[in-house]
Amino acid sequence: MNDRVARWSGPARRLDVAERTNAEQPITPDRIALVWRQRTLALPPHEQHDAAALARELRGLRRWLIGSLAWRDLAHDAPLAEVETAMTHFAALAIDALLPALVSETERRMGQPRDAEGQPIDLLVIGMGKLGAGELNVSSDIDLVLAIPANGPAQSTSAANHDALEFHAHVADRLATLLRTEVSRDFVFRVDTRLRPFGDVGPRVITLDALEHYFMAHGRFWERCAWLKAWVVNAPVSMSAQAFSAACQRLDEMRQAFVFRRYTDYTTIDGLRDLAARIGEQRRAAQLKARATAAFGDADVKLGRGGIREIEFIAQGLAITHGGRNPWLRVPATRTLLTRLASAGRLEAEHAAFLDRAYVLLRRIEHAVQYVADQQTHAIPPDDAQRNELAALMGFETLAGFDESLSEIRSRVAQLFDLILPPPLAARSTQLGTRTGETPSRILTWLSAANRESETTQRKLEAVLSAFDGRFAQDEAGNEAFTRAARLAQTIMKRRTYLDLLNAHPPVMDRVTRLVQASPFAADYLTRHPILLDELIDPRIGSRGIDWVAFDAELDVQLAGELDTERHMNVLRDAHHAQVLRILALDLEGSTPVEAISDELSLLADRLLARALECAWRALKIDGPRPALAVLGYGRLGAKEMGYASDLDLVLISEDAPDEVERLTRWAQRLQSWLSLATTSGRLFEVDLRLRPDGAAGLLVTPRGAFERYHETSALWEKQALTRARFVTGKVALGEWFENWRRRTLAALREPEDVGREVSAMRLRVLEGHPNKTPDFDLKHDPGGLVDMEFAVQAMVLAHASRHADLLDNVGTLALAGRLGAHGLVPPAVAGAAREGYRTLRGLQHVLRLRGADVARMAPIEASGQRAAIRAFVAACGLAFPESR
Question: What residue ranges define each of the domains in the chain, with the CATH number in brackets?
Answer without folding.
Answer: 2-259 (3.30.460.10), 267-422 (1.20.120.330), 426-539 (1.20.120), 542-746 (3.30.460.10), 752-876 (1.20.120.330)
